[in-house]
Design a protein that fits this description.
Largest sheet: 7 strands, mixed
Distance between the termini: 42 Å
Bound molecules: 2-acetamido-2-deoxy-beta-D-glucopyranose
Helix content: 10-25%
Number of helices: 6
Strand content: 35-45%
Strand order of the largest sheet: 19-18-13-14-23-15-22
């Protein structure tokens, strides 16, 4: 695709206006997200949630395979290879369940530019992976998206190898590898490795994002190359090796090069990353209404996931402590609780007990008028091992989260 001259000029103006002569103190990327697994009726969209869970499981499978390829070791004290079998969606139909195609409305998106002059893309900023990919102009199945045209970028260079990713909902993307200048809110990483995918399955057609920018550590990269933020750090482009997220229905932002102190109150509570792969911290515990149901677990903090997933037995114990809670979907580990008396679910790493607000816990009613709401904490091992919980944005929306790549820590603070 050839960008109209006006949009190239606009993109240039935006990029140059945002790029000061000397190092910025940190920059903000506004983020947007459409609604998640709740239908217009206020009911839980189980089909979308189950499809998305398969996609999440395959992301973690792929990144564990990447880790083994990059390091020769297995993650999370495993002694064996991660299961090589992809997880495919398996949805047992339920009566009167609305089918939906909103599986991809679960991403925190913002804008980046690639190339010289810049070509702009809408991107899913994902702390649970470490690669960047966008669709290529030669991709005939990517028509609904912005496309990267290597021939119209003077800084584009083809690299050897190919990139491919396969998600469990049937979606796949693959293509050759390039380096080029990647600009996010005026921060430029030159010679950044990424893939310009030349095939994309039909599942991506309705996806509001063009591609993904991974913000986790290099050892889970499929390309085996430094991700954007590590490149920007190494090239002295960010004022500090820290980035921060506020995820909320309004005013969501990614802050690159530090933290935005107007978005949180009180002290930040930092925890060391267990292994520089995912943003994973140990010593976690979970409680419902003050009753601790699981402790000593590792937790991966992931902007690219919506639901919170924990050990099936411990999550069962947690819902068992909630009056009126019921199993909603045993196969997929979903539970419901009385909508009019939501429990207080908290996570702690030895400091503050961070509470999930009733709004963030609620994925919608089991059916219209049932009075039972499905909880955003599911009892399912998504392939990380039973002692590793995965906390998506249903958790992150309750806190301001700071990711320090220099200290290898994750910090939480109360939202302002
Ligand atoms: C910090 O957040 C506030 C409130 O959203 C915003 O107005 C401000 O521009 C942000 N600061 C920076 C440096 O981006
Ligand atoms: C990647 O893993 C290797 C081998 O375990 C380790 O030496 C290296 O420090 C890791 N790299 C990063 C960036 O974490
Ligand atoms: C791996 O072992 C270390 C040391 O015993 C422990 O701290 C950590 O929690 C373990 N990781 C997992 C995922 O169990
Ligand atoms: C499953 C279900 O109850 N769907 C209903 C959602 O709401 C619309 C209108 O608001 C109805 O047309 C659907 O039948």
């Amino acid at each position: 695709m050839i960008l109209p001259a006006t949009s190239v000029a606009l993109a240039l103006a935006l990029v140059s206006a945002a790029a000061p002569a000397h190092q910025p103190a940190g920059v903000t990327i506004p983020l947007h997200k459409r609604n998640t697994f709740t239908t217009a009726n206020g009911t839980f969209d189980r089909t979308a949630a189950v499809k998305n869970t398969a996609k999440v499981a395959n992301k973690y499978l792929q990144t564990q395979i990447n880790f083994h390829k990059n390091t020769g070791r297995f993650m999370n004290n495993r002694t064996d290879a991660p299961p090589l079998k992809k997880v495919f969606r398996h949805i047992t139909p339920r009566q009167s369940e609305p089918l939906s195609d909103i599986e991809d409305d679960t991403e925190w998106t913002g804008t980046i530019a690639i190339g010289t002059p810049p070509q702009t893309f809408t991107i899913n900023f994902d702390t649970g992976s470490s690669d960047l990919w966008v669709p290529a102009s030669s991709c005939s199945s990517c028509a609904t998206h912005h496309l990267y045209d290597t021939t119209s970028s003077s800084t584009s260079q083809a690299q050897s190898g190919t990139f491919g990713i396969e998600y469990g909902d049937g979606s796949t993307a693959s293509g050759p590898i390039y380096t080029d200048a990647v600009t996010v809110a005026g921060i430029v990483a030159t010679n950044q490795f990424f893939s310009a995918v030349t095939t994309e399955s039909a599942e991506f057609a309705d996806d509001p994002t063009d591609g993904i920018l991974g913000l986790a550590f290099p050892n889970i990269s499929s390309l085996g190359q430094p991700p954007f933020f590590q490149s920007a750090m190494a090239q002295g482009q960010v004022s500090s090796g820290v980035f921060s997220f506020k995820l909320a229905s309004e005013g969501s932002e990614l802050f690159l090069g530090g933290k935005n102190s107007s978005l949180y109150t009180g002290a930040l509570e930092f925890h060391s990353v267990s292994e520089a792969a995912y943003w994973q911290i140990g010593g976690g515990s979970a409680a419902a209404n003050g009753v601790v149901a699981g402790s000593g677990f590792e937790a991966v903090i992931d902007t690219g996931t919506t639901i919170m997933y924990g050990d099936p037995d411990q999550v069962g114990t947690l819902y068992g402590a909630i009056p009126g809670a019921q199993v909603f979907d045993a196969e997929n580990g979903f539970y419901s609780y009385p909508c009019n008396s939501p429990p207080t679910v908290t996570f702690s790493w030895g400091g503050t007990a961070w509470a999930i607000t009733p709004e963030n816990l609620n994925l919608g009613e089991t059916e219209e008028g049932s009075g039972q709401c499905v909880g955003a904490l599911a009892g399912q091992d998504v392939g990380l091992g039973s002692n590793v919980w995965l906390l998506g944005d249903s958790f992150m929306k309750n806190v301001y989260t700071v990711f320090s790549a220099v200290d290898q820590t994750v910090g939480f603070a109360a939202l302002a």
